[in-house]
Design a protein that fits this description.
The protein is α+β, with helices and mostly antiparallel strands. It contains 11 helices and 12 strands. The two termini are 16 Å apart.
């Protein structure tokens, strides 16, 4: 649905299916993580921004629960307490359960959803859905919640109810993003700092859809928990992996076997890269930001083992043809690569990269750009 305006489409779909205008319309952006991968659930910092593509949810009161997505046009009635796993309405059901416990849910609702965020491209389409739907459902009760609380509630829905062992980054940036800014978010302390970032960022979709529930993400999170235990056995008193000093890595490498030392090395060095990237942004040093992006990708590929051949080829090709920096973004195992391209040479670089990717995988990657956008809002 990337060629449509989601708010207009969700509104039109609501009127078509339910014969009336929606009571409320809310929209939320997708998320692009500039740097800081897998650090948010390990106590470390992240540096995300909201993208210009959004998910819109139109909502109205009802006696039960019905949702329609513009992606397939199928009307789905769902029971928040008995929704089959695997259906996208499981996200809505989990959200309703969280809101019911907080007395922030209506008795029922009709919902229509439209999006311009590519699904499965690691751009937080699920967080955008939950934050937009949460904003809309809470509005149906005439209650108001702060963006920080909305982020916490929607995180609980995805993490606790749906079972995605994610961190808090996605919901936080989707709810609190400011236009023209990236957000330095210290997940361990909760501290946030908005950093001006007006640069255009390019997104190259690998075409490999990643799946967050179960699978590799949950396995990596379990490995991180195990690794933290081994770190403590080695004599380091830390509450999270992100607290491990860089200078401790050589000693830990002699005491911890793979894959646990690999996961630790990625997280400790990635924590340092995020903070270095924040300083570079403040100094307007995009060359340094680019270097850090590439280093981050290499760490994801080699130590966290969350990349894929398609992403590796894209990063290599982008750097060969003049990008300032590029890396896999999102949880990994598919999704998208982000890149900072030289101003004035974007079209040339994109054409060269698409040609090389075509030779490697038999298809050209979809490429598009965004600037840092605003977070959740009511209306368009």
């Amino acid at each position: 649905m990337t060629g449509t305006v989601p708010a207009r489409e969700a509104t039109s779909l609501f009127q078509e299916r339910f014969g009336s205008a929606p009571r409320i319309l809310a929209s939320a952006p997708g998320r692009l993580n500039l740097i800081g991968e897998h650090t948010d659930y390990n106590g470390g910092p992240v540096l995300p921004l909201a993208i210009s593509r959004r998910t819109a949810v139109a909502a109205g009161h009802a006696g039960g629960w019905t949702a329609v997505s513009a992606l397939d046009g199928i009307s789905r009635s769902f029971d928040p307490d008995n929704t089959p796993a695997g259906d996208w309405t499981a996200y809505l059901a989990g959200l309703v359960r969280v809101l019911q416990r907080e007395q922030l849910a209506p008795r029922g609702a009709r919902l229509t959803v439209a999006t311009s965020i590519p699904i499965g491209a690691a751009l937080s389409s699920s967080a955008a859905l939950l934050v937009a739907a949460g904003r809309a459902l809470i509005a149906l009760t005439d209650a108001r919640v702060a963006p920080e609380r909305l982020a916490r509630l929607t995180y609980q829905a995805e993490h606790d109810e749906v079972g995605v062992k994610c961190g808090t980054m996605d919901q936080t940036i989707v709810a609190l993003a400011q236009s023209g800014h990236a957000l330095l978010f210290e997940s361990g302390s909760g501290q946030m700092r908005q950093l001006p970032f007006a640069r255009q960022v390019w997104i190259f979709e690998t075409g490999v859809v990643h799946e967050l529930r179960g699978g590799e993400l949950n396995r990596r999170r379990a490995e991180c928990t195990e690794a933290l235990g081994l770190v403590r056995q080695a004599g380091l008193t830390v509450s999270s992996i992100a607290e491990i000093p860089l200078e401790s890595l050589p000693r830990l490498a002699g005491e911890m076997p793979p894959p646990w030392i690999n996961r630790v090395r990625h997280l400790v060095t990635e924590t340092a890269r995020v903070r270095a990237a924040a300083r570079a942004l403040e100094a307007h040093d995009l060359v340094q930001v680019g270097r850090l992006l590439v280093e981050g990708h290499q760490s994801l590929r080699d130590d966290y083992q969350s990349s894929c051949p398609e992403a590796d080829l894209l990063v290599e090709s982008l750097m060969q043809h003049g990008a300032l920096g590029a890396r896999l973004t999102g949880a990994g195992w598919g999704g998208a690569v982000i890149a900072l391209l030289p101003v004035g040479r974007e079209a040339q670089v994109i054409a060269q990269v698409q040609e090389q990717y075509q030779r490697g995988f038999g298809r050209a990657p979809n490429a598009w750009s965004t600037k840092a956008a605003a977070g959740v809002r009511v209306g368009r």
